[in-house]
Structure formats: C-alpha cells, structure tokens
Predict the 3D structure of the following.
Amino acid sequence: MATESLKLTRREFLIGTAAAGAGFSLGLYLPVAGAAGAAEQPPEVNAWVVIQPDDTVIIRIARSEMGQGTLTGLAQLVAEELECDWSKVTTEYPTPGQSLARDRIWGSFSTGGSQGIRGSHDYVRRGGAVAREMLIEAAAEAWGVPKAECSAKASVITHGPSGRTTTYGKVAAAAAGLFPPDHVKLKDPKDWQLIGKPVKRLDTLDKLTGKQVFGADLTLPGMLNASIRACPTFGGRLKSFDDSQVRGMPGVRAVLRVDDNAVAVVADTWWQANTALDKLPVTWDRGPNARLDSAAIEGMLAEGLTAEEAFVGNRAGDAKAALGDAAKTVEAVYAYPYQNHATMEPMNATARWTPERCEVWCPTQNGEAALQAAAEAAGLPAEKCEVYKLHLGGGFGRRGAFHDFVQQAVAIAKQLPGTPVKLLWTREEDMQHGHYHPVTQCRLTGGLDEQGELTGLHVRISGQSILAAVNPAWMTNGMDTFTFQGMLPDGDHALSYTVPNLLVEHAMRNPPVPPGFWRGVNINQNAVYLECFMDELAYAAGKDPLAFRRKLMVKHTKGLAVLEAVADKAGWGEPLPEGRGRGLAVCKAFASHVAACAEVSVDDKGRLKIHRIVAATDPGYAVNPQQIEAQVEGSFVYGLSALLYGECTIRDGAVEQSNFDDYPSMLIDEMPEVETLIMPTGGFWGGIGEPTIAVAAPAVLNAIHAATGKRVRRFPLKHVALRD
Amino acid sequence: MAKLKVNGETVEFDGDASTPLLWVLREQLGLTGTKYGCGKGRCGACTVHIDGKAVRACTVPVGSLDASQELVTIEGLSPDGSHPVQQAWAELDVPQCGYCQPGFIMAAAALLERNPAPDDADIDANLPNICRCGTYNRVRRGVHRAVQLKKKEVS
C-alpha cells in the first residue's frame, strides 16, 4: 500500500483519500497559494494546525465568532488533543474560497443553531490529534527512534528512554511532509486537561482598546462608502429617484439603483452618502402588501387556531377524547409578536468587483453562504469570488441564512468596477428590513382528572413557518418541524413531559413579512406557551407548579434534574414578602436541558422588578464554564428584552419601529443577578448560546403570576398593566 | 475649518460643521473604536470623553467643538490598554461580541473619575448603554473591580 501510494504525487494521493470519504480529509496538505507562496508560509501540519518556528500555534476556526465564545471553545477542543502550549495559541479564519478549493476540508462554516461546538467537536478534536501524531512522528524520525517511545505535552516532544526533547516549532516543517495516520484515538473525557477549564477568551484584548476591526470598521485603499434605502413595504419596488437634487452634494460619487427595490448613494464618506440619501426624492411602487397591518395578520392567525386542517407535530393517545372525559378543562390563548434581531452592529459588507473577480469583506455567520450570495450577485462562479470574514458585532441568526447585505454591496460594487465600496445600513434600515422572529398564536387546552392529574393536552399553534420562507427543502411533506421546537416527541427539542394523551398541531399561516432564525428560534414562544400553561394547569389543579411538573417528568430525568436544582437553589417553597413571587420553567433545546427560577416583585404601580434568576444547564459536556456562564447571563438579557419590549408592528406593509427609541432593549438597571448552575452529565453534546432563552421569559411570567395573580398572554409586557 | 484636540493631538476638519463627531472620528481620523449603533444617542456605542465627561459622539456636531476641549476616544484612554477599567474588563472577560464595549468602557472610566467608589445605583444611572449580547452583570462586576485596581494604582 505504501509503495503504491508513493508512486502517486502527494497531491493526488491526498485528494484521493479525501474523495474516498475518509472523514474530514485529515492531513490534507494543499498549499492554497501554490508552491512559491507556501514556502513563505509557516508549515501547515494539517488543515487545522499551523505551527511557527517560535512554537506559536495557529488554530484554524471555520465557525464565526459573534460573541458566543466559539472561537475559544473550538481552539480548546483542538488544543486538547494537540497537546500544545495553550499560552502560545492564536486563531485564524480560513476563507470560504480556500475551503471550496480544498474540497470543504473545514466542513461547515455555518454558525447557528448552537452548533459551533456540538456540530464540530469530533472532527476538530481529530484534527488536533492527527497533527499531534504527525509532530511526534517527525521527531521520532529525526532521532531515529520508534515513535511509540515518544510522547508530547505542552508543545514539547520527549523521547522517554533517552530523555531527549524537542519542540513543535522545530519539527513542524518535517511533520507537514508526513502522511497523516489512518486512525487516531480521541481522549476519554475523564482525561481532558483543557476542555472543561474556564480559560480566558482569546479575543478579548483587542475589544478593549478599539483595535478589533468589525465589518463596519473596515477601510481599504480607494474605498468609497454607500448608504442604502430599500422600499419600506415588503414586496415593494423602487419606481424612480431624482438624483439631480443630490449629485452636487459634498463627496457624492454616484446614485445607484440596487436590484429592483433599493437605491444607494455612494460617496467619499458614509456620512456624506447618508446625508445625500436623506435628501434624495424617491418614489416607491409599494406593491401588493401596501395595506397590510398587524390587525390583519392577527386575524389571519386567529383563524388558524380553530381551522380544520393542521400539521401534527406530536401525538400520543387520544387527546380530544381525554379532554372530553376530563373532570376539569383549562384553556388559554397566547400570542407572540414579530421581533427584530437588532444586532449592535448594523448590517454591512464591503465589496470589490471586476469582470474577473469579486471579493467581499463582511461579518457573517456562514462564510460559505456569504460566498454563494456574493457569486450570485457578481454573476461569477464561486471559484472567482472570495469572502473575508470579519468579527460580527452580534449575529443572533440575522447574519446566517440571509446575506441580503452582501448581495446589495456586490450589486453596488458591480456598478463601480474595481472600486471597493463599503455598504453600511442605518439603524433604521436595519430595523425595517430584518428577517423577523416569526409571529404565532397558540391555543392550549388541558384536561385534569379528579385528582388534578393532567390526562390530556391539546396544543394548537397558528402562524408563521420560518422554513417555508427560508429553506423549503428542509420541510417534511409541507410541514415545518422547527415550528414544534420544545414540543417534539424526541430529538434535540423534545418535550420535557410525558402526557398520556397529547396532540400538538401547527396551522401554518404565512403573512408576507420575512421571518428568520432568531436566537432560540421557535423555543422562545413555544416555551412561553407551554411553561406558562403548565403553571396555569398546576394552579387549576390546586397543586404546586414544581410538584405538578415533577409527576410528568419521571421519564425525563435530565430535565427534572436541572429543574430540581434551580428550585432548590432558589429556595422554592420558602416564604416571600407580599408582592414577591417565584416562577419556574424547564425546556430541552438544542440538545441541552435548561431550567430557570425567577424571583420578581410588582409594586402598587405595576412596576416589575426582577430580583434574582437561578439558571441551570446540562449541555452534556461543558467546554468552557466561564463562557457558558456568560452565555446563560446573556440569554436572559436577550430573552427578557424580548419579553419586556420586543415588538415589531406592521402598518401599510412596513415595520413601524425604526430605532432603539421605539424598539428598546433592556438596560443594566433592569438586569437581575443570575446564578448559573452548570451540570454536565456527559455522553452528549448540547448547545449553549440559545437554550436558556427558552426559560427566561416563562420563568419571569410565572413569577409575575405568583406575585400578582395576573396571567399575561400577550407580549411584550410594556403594553400590560401588571396591577389594576 | 474646525480644530479639535483628540487624544492629545490637534487635528483639523474642513468638512460640513454639522457632521457628527462620531463620523469625523471614524472616517476622517480613522478612530473606528468609537462605534455607530443608532445615530440618535440611544445606545451609547459611540461614547467618548469631552473634558472628562462621557458624551455620545453621534449627537455632537463637530462645529460645536473647538481645540480647547480635550476629546478622548477608546484609542486614547490609555497607551497600552492598562486603564483600570480595561484591566478589569480583561480580568473578567467582559466583552462578548465586543461592539458596544468601547462605549461601556468610556462611560465607566468617566464615572470613576467623578465617583471613585460607585455603588450599583450609580452604575445603573451612569451606564445606560445597550448591549444585546447581555454583558451587563460582568460590566457591573468590572466597574467594581476597576475601583479596586484604581485604588491599588494610587497606593
């Protein structure tokens, strides 16, 4: 085998092994820039690991860093197996174009669905292990000793019998020329040294001095700046504009039509471009949705609550019969609004187009999708395009499935061949051209027997499907299973309860407002519906909400464990002063089990104060506990901002909100203490960035009920008087 | 022509006097650490110091300033990231995405100049900046930690 392989060129051999499906093409060595360029580069031991002569370890990260800490977590996974000196680790993003040229050697670039770590832990650890084996082998060959007598730790390779040592930096070039081993064994989790440690993030320091370059900060030689306005009405078009009014304004270089629905001003500076755009007379063809408003959408969804036909997402026994036989039934209708992602950094991208090549610099949650979007807009094959990823000033799902901002930037650059143009949206543009958290309503009917036990539950969701708008290929016979997140029979988003007679349905109603994946996706509203209704059922049954849930969770031991943990830590059942209350919520989301207990008070004027949150999460394995803590705390800010304030309303076919004055976010004065319990039980890999969003709002809502007796079923809370 | 003193250096700007300070910093002086978030003084991502006070640079026309005023941006807060607030932020790994953090750091540094030992209510009142990632609790701990570091510096 070895002799035969050596007859092939190295390149052919390695491409052959990759094509044969040998996992993730471990050890594939293909200098991207060609032989001459490669000679100047430090040796790439394999696709994941580059080691410089001074022992600096560069770990390649394909997923995007947007605050969630995945850059550090993924580097920990590689470094654990690599046995390198953590203090010498840095990271870099490979480009999507390099990935394309190398047969997708880095796997998926998609950074959403809390997949960063759980979706790539296996192959990145293997990448580290393979590189380690190659480095050890290179040292053993140099010493002329059996590899089995050598070991590595902290970037130092030691030959046991002789005690000789060398470092990774010294043998990296030789290692890069070796064939990767066919098999590597990953460490047993009990032997992990770095995974599970609360190491510091690798990307903090530049964020403290202003050095960190976000997409919006990029400057290229000769670059112009663009501000854009798209037709505010969904589905509307650009009819005309009168550029005679603005062409002579300072710095203005061009006024351009962008696709069929937008106009952009290009100027020396963005401020000049935006100032001119504000003065530009524009006529829109507002299109078919010009009269659409929130009331019409509400009516459309309300009809779905009782419609004959609906998709079934989960069924057990006979829910309708059980409800008919119940000693007592409880019914409630909830509704959840549209919400904008409102990343702190508005959408932006920089593009340079020539007939031969298109390059884009942008913050993106999915470099490969950005490359496809760029190629499509450029009218060039993807091989002639490239995307350079920059850090994201927030993502939350907005910058993953949608690259409208990239397509616009390319469409502008295409009209100014050879000139780099940075497109930056205003906050107003960002607010009005989102891909919004979808709207749904939900009717829940529960049946209790004489003893107050839940015998049947019927959940009817009515509303918008994200997949129908974004990715119909992921649907199953027209059904969007994502709609049932948190209520499914099994999988990453399984229902945390066993209900003997259960029917969960979705009447799909798709208003013409573009929906999107929004941190947490459908667990945000589904957990509100389910967890608040569980509380309603418990009170109707005259039972303690914890005891009521406990009975239904006998088979859901991991979920029950996190729920019991938060109840215990929060002092569930202990007396509270008048006007205070505690609330619970539990959920399985993105494969993790999460629970929260909130303690709130509502004063005589109806003012809410959230005093304390205890949150627990079982993500299977906890890679970096201090970053899990940060994500859990952050989930409460994002989830509670949504509960308190998050709402986009529609009037004349457009979003009415425009900036943080009418789309506020929670501030520091409203932030409760959050105590985070990390309870990894091992054996599975769950997500971190999103699951806790599920329990933030329902825990607080249930606490509000405990404090006031008031059930809130429409959101956001800013519209609701909590005291009569 | 407007003359400004930014991070100790006198600079000139001959554009439109109504241009907000934010865009002069970012586009004329290349000081992109000061961020655009809302353009209406709502989010605080553009917070800088004018004569030691925290000001939202998107609301200040550059023509209203002159070279007698000391403007400090995140790039000029310390020569090497060693301001007690920056040190505390590094110790506690405060930033997530980091986009809003220069604004928080500048607001916190201005608060500590005025009030060397702020309590939680002072922090609430003086850091009304928006962070969508949700770093508020670490920001709060960071301010308290910076107070300790500053005391050490003095002693």
Q: What stands out?
A: Chain B is about 35% helix and 15% strand. The CA atoms of residues 20 and 61 of chain B lie 4 Å apart. Chain B has two domains: 2-76, 84-154.
